[in-house]
Specification:
This protein is globular. The longest helix has about 40 residues. By secondary structure, the protein is α/β, with parallel strands linked by helices. It has a domain of about 150 residues: Glutathione S-transferase Yfyf (Class Pi), Chain A, domain 2 (Up-down Bundle). The chain has 12 helices and 15 strands. The strands form 3 sheets. Strands 2-1-4-5-6-7 form a 6-stranded antiparallel β-sheet. Strand 6 and strand 7 form a beta hairpin.
C-alpha cells in the first residue's frame, strides 16, 4: 500500500500526530478547523514537497516553532521506502531511505492525487493549473519526461533573460533552435499522455455526469504555423513583454462537456464533477503505467454534491483500488462499501476509533 505509517510534527496546528494507515479506506472526522485538512496537506507534502493549498513555509510551521518534520513509510514498487521531509527558514530537506533527494523523488516514491473543495478550479481556474495536471500525468506516464521538461524550462529561462537584457536578435535566434526542439518533445509527451488517458476520461465522465466528456489540447501557439516561425515573427512582441509569449508554457487543456465548453456552461457542482473526472482518469492511467496503487486524498468529498452525485463519485473512487484517506464532519458518512479505519481529530490531536 502507498502509506503504512505516517507522522507529522509542528505542521500547521498539528503538534505531533502518528497513525498506521489502512491499505484501503481511512476516514478522518472532526469539527471544522480541528485539523482534518492539515493532516491531508501534510500527507500530500510528503509526496510532493509543497502545499496543495499554495501555502508558504512560514504558514505551515506551527506557531512558535522553527521547523516542521514529516515522516512516512511507503510501498514503492516491491520495496518499502522511508520518506522524511523537514522544512524551516533554512530550506527544504528531503531524505528517502537515508539519501538526499528532491521533489521528483518524492513524487516517484509516493505518487498521489487530491480532490478537495477547490478542485473545481481545475476546470474554471487559470491555465497554469491545467498545465500542472498535464505535467503530472506526463511525468508518471512518459519515460524521461522530467528531464525533457527541466531542459525546456532552462531554455525558456535563458531566452527570457536574453529578451529582458536587450540581447541582439542573432543571440535570441541562437536560443530558438534548442527551445523549439525541447518544446516539441514536451508537446509530444503531453499529447501522448492525454491520448492514453482519453478512454478513462470518457468512461469516468459518462458515469459521473451522464454525458460525453473530452479533452481538447491547445499547444500554446498557433498550430497552423511552425513554432520557429511563430517565435521569429513575434520577436518584437516578446521584447516588449520581456518574455516568450508562445510555447508549451502557454499550453492549456479545454474540456468539452455535452458538446459545450465546460468552463463556461456548467454549475460549480458540475465543475467539481468534471474536475474529479480529470483526476480519476489521470489516477487510473498512472496506476496502470506504474503497476501499483496510488494514494488518493479526499477532503470533504460531500461538499457541494447531492447524495446521488456523491454516491456516483465514490463508486468511481472505490473502483480505482487506491488507498484512500478521506475527511468528513461525522464518522458515519456513507463513503465506502466496507468499514473504514476511522480517526478522530480535535484541536490538532488525532486518535484512532474502535
Amino acid at each position: 500500500m502507498p502509506v503504512q505509517r505516517f507522522t507529522a510534527a509542528n505542521f500547521r496546528c498539528l503538534e505531533s500526530i502518528e497513525f498506521e494507515a489502512d491499505p484501503n479506506y481511512n476516514l478522518i472526522y472532526g469539527a471544522n478547523a480541528a485539523g482534518k485538512t492539515s493532516i491531508l496537506e501534510a500527507l500530500a507534502y510528503l509526496g510532493r514537497g509543497k502545499s496543495f493549498r499554495g501555502a508558504a513555509t512560514n504558514d505551515l510551521i506551527r506557531h512558535g516553532e522553527r521547523e516542521f518534520v514529516l515522516f512516512g513509510e511507503a510501498t514503492a514498487g516491491d520495496r518499502r521506502a522511508r520518506i522524511g521531509v523537514r522544512n524551516s527558514h533554512a530550506g527544504l530537506e528531503i531524505r528517502i531511505d537515508g539519501e538526499g533527494g528532491g521533489a521528483a523523488d518524492l513524487a516517484s516514491t509516493l505518487p498521489l492525487q487530491i480532490i478537495d473543495p477547490d478542485i473545481h478550479n481545475l476546470v474554471a481556474g487559470a491555465p497554469e493549473q491545467r498545465r500542472r495536471y498535464l505535467d503530472w500525468l506526463a511525468f508518471h506516464v512518459e519515460h524521461g519526461y522530467l528531464d525533457t521538461w527541466r531542459r525546456f524550462r532552462r531554455a525558456l529561462k535563458q531566452r527570457n533573460a536574453a529578451l529582458r537584457n536587450g540581447a541582439a536578435s542573432s543571440t535570441i535566434h541562437g536560443w530558438n533552435a534548442e527551445f523549439v526542439e525541447l518544446a516539441a518533445r514536451v508537446d509530444m509527451a503531453r499529447r501522448s499522455a492525454l491520448e492514453v488517458t482519453s478512454a478513462a476520461l470518457e468512461e469516468s465522465g459518462s458515469e459521473l455526469l451522464g454525458s460525453a466528456v473530452a479533452f481538447r489540447y491547445r499547444a500554446g501557439w498557433n498550430e497552423d504555423n511552425e513554432l520557429l516561425a511563430v517565435l521569429e515573427g513575434g520577436l518584437e512582441r516578446d521584447r516588449q513583454h520581456g518574455s516568450t509569449q508562445h510555447g508549451p508554457h502557454r499550453a492549456d487543456l479545454k474540456l468539452s462537456y455535452d458538446e459545450r465548453q465546460a468552463r463556461k456552461l456548467v454549475s460549480r457542482g458540475q465543475q467539481k464533477l468534471l474536475a474529479c473526472t480529470m483526476i480519476l482518469a489521470a489516477t487510473e492511467t498512472a496506476q496502470a503505467a506504474l503497476e501499483r496503487p496510488l494514494l488518493l486524498l479526499l477532503d470533504d468529498p460531500a461538499a457541494e454534491l447531492d447524495s446521488d452525485a456523491l454516491q456516483r463519485l465514490m463508486d468511481q473512487v472505490v473502483g480505482l483500488g487506491c488507498q484512500i484517506v478521506a475527511t468528513s464532519l461525522e464518522p458515519d458518512v456513507p463513503l465506502f462499501p466496507a468499514p473504514a479505519t476511522v480517526f478522530h481529530v480535535e484541536h490538532g490531536r488525532l486518535e484512532k476509533q474502535g
